[in-house]
TrEMBL record:
Keyword tRNA-binding in annotation: no
Pfam families: Peptidase_A22B
Any GO molecular function: aspartic endopeptidase activity, intramembrane cleaving
Listed name of the protein: Uncharacterized protein
Transmembrane residue ranges: 12-31, 37-55, 110-132, 138-155
InterPro entries: Peptidase_A22B_SPP, Preselin/SPP
An annotated GO cellular component: membrane
Protein keywords: Hydrolase, Membrane, Transmembrane, Transmembrane helix
Cell location: Endomembrane system
SMART domains: PSN
Length: 180
């Protein structure tokens, strides 16, 4: 229905709504299994994005990224998948704190860390695109602003092993019961 509406009107708002729906669907249904896959995927796509924006003109005589697609769906989706992973880990930590009778306020909120980093990365991408008056690879700003704070926070809270291997999905917390 939305695609038909866009074909009839050609309005930019309709295509933006279609893009948001697709991004939301991908983030909802695709799950990154661990921080290792997330790190490799984000770093690989960062290198890919930087190459096509900054170096493709030297090889192909035109900037392929600008000619083909100024903005692609992978820019918001891939860091969004990392943010979704952080939310799943937060849910794990929340369940763990419930089983151990710890306060939920004391648990680390990785989701908030990623979300703030994501917003900051988008802001930086917009600022640099405006200042330099040239397209910038959004992943150049989104990857470091989401991945680095998550890594630092996980390292500080000793959760890096669980997140890297993805083993937090299978960990069962044993509750100690004292029988008197």
């Amino acid at each position: 229905m939305m695609v038909f509406l866009w074909l009839l009107t050609g309005h930019w708002l309709v295509i933006d709504v279609i893009g948001m729906v697709l991004c939301t669907a991908v983030i909802t249904y695709v799950r990154l299994p661990n921080l290792q896959v997330s790190t490799y995927l984000l770093c690989g796509l960062l290198i890919y994005d930087v190459f096509w924006v900054y170096f493709s003109e030297r090889i192909f005589r035109s900037n392929v990224m600008i000619d083909v697609a100024m903005s692609t769906a992978r820019n918001p989706v891939i860091p969004g998948l990392l943010t979704s992973f952080a939310l799943r880990f937060d849910n794990f930590k929340s369940k763990q704190s419930d089983l151990l009778n710890k306060s939920r306020l004391m648990t680390v909120n990785y989701f908030r860390c990623c979300l703030i980093g994501y917003a900051f990365g988008l802001f930086l991408a917009g600022v640099f695109a405006t200042i330099l008056n040239a397209p910038q690879p959004a992943l150049l700003f989104l990857v470091p602003s989401t991945l680095l704070p998550l890594w630092l926070l996980a390292y500080k809270k000793n959760d890096i092993g669980y997140m890297w291997s993805g083993s937090f999905n299978e960990i069962k917390i044993k509750r100690e019961v004292n029988i008197i």
